[in-house]
Amino acid sequence: MNEQLQPLKKQTREGKTVRSGTQDDVVYAHIFDAILEQRLAPGTKLSEEALGEIFGVSRTIIRRALSRLAHEGVVLLRPNRGAVVASPGAEEARQIFYVRRMIERAITELACKNAKPEQIAALRQMVIDERECFARGDRGMGIRLSGEFHLKLAEAAGNLTLLGFLRSLISQTSLIIALYESNSRTHCSDAEHDQVIDAIEAGNVEVAVDLMMRHMDSVDAKLNLDGETASDDLHAVFSHLLPGTKKKAPRNAASR
Question: In the CATH scheme, what is the code of domain 90-220?
Answer without folding.
Answer: 1.20.120.530
